[in-house]
Amino acid sequence: MAERSQTAPEAGSDMGNDDAIGGNVSKYVVLPTGYCGQPKKGHLIFDACFESGNLGRVDQVSEFEYDLFIRPDTCNPRFRVWFNFTVENVKESQRVIFNIVNFSKTKSLYRDGMAPMVKSTSRPKWQRLPPKNVYYYRCPDHRKNYVMSFAFCFDREEDIYQFAYCYPYTYTRFQHYLDSLQKRNMDYFFREQLGQSVQQRQLDLLTITSPDNLREGAEQKVVFITGRVHPGETPSSFVCQGIIDFLISQHPIARVLREHLVFKIAPMLNPDGVYLGNYRCSLMGFDLNRHWLDPSPWAHPTLHGVKQLIIQMYNDPKTSLEFYIDIHAHSTMMNGFMYGNIFEDEERFQRQAVFPKLLCQNAEDFSYSSTSFNRDAVKAGTGRRFLGGLLDHTSYCYTLEVSFYSYIIGGTTAAVPYTEEAYMKLGRNVARTFLDYYRLNPMVEKVAIPMPRLREKELTSRRRKGKPPSYKHSLLRGPASNHPNGKGDKKSSVNHKDPSNSF
After folding, report:
1. Do the beta carbons of residue 46 and residue 85 sit within 8 Å?
2. Which CATH number fits the domain that encloses residue 218?
3. Which domain holds residue 122?
4. N or C: which end of the chain has fewer CB within 10 A?
């Protein structure tokens, strides 16, 4: 049997199979029963030994069909949702059926049309498989567990194909992104290392604000944002990047927000889990979003570091911690929506509803009707619940959820699948909503860059030649354009084929 990677083994599991899955498959060659010799084209090679990879086992059921087992989160057999693996050594026009057989959840957006992601070396843009090729059902062959099966046809022999639960967003990608921002030397963007994970990965903290707000003795209104406490919830990182990209831009709204607020952002609370390809847990098998009450500095160091900072800010009389937003992705709901807290004070409860109502007006994919406020006992250790109890009545704590799959625009019933760009657009709209919340709209026109005036002689000359005036500086177009560069929400300039025809 092919070699498997040596990640931490799991003790005891209810995977519906007697064999424990102790790591990811590593260049695992599937050969027909009784075959001897070197692998031929069409003898598939599976691999998940790469960053954020996850595939624990492959069983060939027939010539065309394969059962695939998700590797459970490290040190915790309960969670099996995220998958991310490659297939190579394919034959042109080779048709297969892949069955993901050991999901730990029964409810899933696969029932509503969600499909796995795919890309290949010659087509590096992630695309969703056609929903008509995906089936989600209870299977008697696997102890009546739910199985997600999808049919696929390989079309290019030299390509390596990659399949994933959702758009991956790795720790390395995140580090490269922050490195690129740091090199721009923006005086309103600050990056620091708040701590390290168990495996010594960085816990990055970003501060985005006008330098005037950081001078000694200055009063600060702080918005604190966190993401990726659950490592498999990759849409969280795209939303968070959308927030960051907008706040550091030269858009007039971003400039006003930087003047009036201090944004503290810890975009990746669980870097080890992200790197390892876990769905919900850290390296040691902890769901970090249940340990806010008493995080251990050695078992939950990233959570401990963020909590200490928040308490420090809370105790600073010059700092008003106004918002805490923790970004997640949801595996059974559509749209973006929020969870908030319940308070005995009716006025405080009503005030808490203001921000999600405003966000609903700004973002077509955000649903206020799906937003809910609760005090469930099972959520007691979450950031939202713990900080909602710690902070005073001037602070608002939310969990921002976004669907792994799609959103439904008001007045329609058609599901619109999320793209990486759509997730980032939601992030930009979250950032813009603070302008409405703090009623800073009148300030936007004051910071807009005035139109450069041409010399009268040059202007007259251009009019005579029938040419429009040219300006050396591009104009920012105000609220009508919410792209960080003031260019609107345009798709990538790279041409890609229709996803339904690409594979």
Report:
1. yes
2. 3.40.630.10
3. 28-164
4. N
